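## Example pair
The file below holds two records. Each record gives the amino-acid sequence first, followed by its structure token line.
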Amino acid sequence: MIYGWLPTAETPAKTPTPNTDWGQVDGDALTVATPVTLEWDNGEGLIFRRYISVDDNYMFAIRQTVRNETPEAVSLAPYG
């Protein structure tokens, strides 16, 4: 399954695509004991993060956040 963010008409910002090269900022390797955090900066003041974990039954949990470092309000639509 693919997860991501879509820009809205109110916020025509760059958002990650399926080809986005995410950087790993936390966690050495994804294991049951160690989740990983990925980050992508769109260069326009929005920082996208994905927190990925896996349990003993190989079920993945993915949580997404966006940090807005611009002075403007931002409207994005998550999908998954």
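Second record, same layout:
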Amino acid sequence: QMALRSLTPPPDRSLAIRTTAYSVTLLLLALLCWLFMSRQHLRRSVAEQQRSKLQLRSIMDNVADAIITTLPDGTIEQVNLSCYPMFGYSAATLPGMHWSALLAEPQRLDELYTATSTNKAEYETLGRRHDDSLFPLAIRRSHIRLQRQARQLLVLRDLSEQQKTEQLKQEFIATVSHELRTPLTSISAALG
């Protein structure tokens, strides 16, 4: 029988292996912490974005004028809640339609685009409700960018009440001037 023994003891690699294992474990823990913190940050960002979106939607839905955003080709993308009763459509039926369907004379769309080429310009025309009744309408149009894409923003105002008020005012002035003219003529004749 023969036994062989090395004169140099085998190198102790357990320290290097333990050091490597601890380093990998620490690296994995750091990565998990970073992922957890990133997830929390993402949740906060999403929650903040949702709050901001709800706030903007609430503001839009409480405006009396109809607000419409369209794609560049005129297809309705979003509308506020005031748009539905103004035009007599039921909820969520307008998106996907071309916005010129809301006009009494859609063939004059080019004239409208020319007249509202500046953001401050307002164009008065007739609007068409779902039941085909017509009403006076004022339109403001502007170009915006949403999510890095071009959009068209339309603000439509129903002028029916304003025109009724103007008509009542004109009738009142005509009545008062007529009623005052008769006694004033008599007084003027008597004084003469």
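Notes on the second record: The chain has four helices and five strands. The first helix runs from residue 14 to 61.
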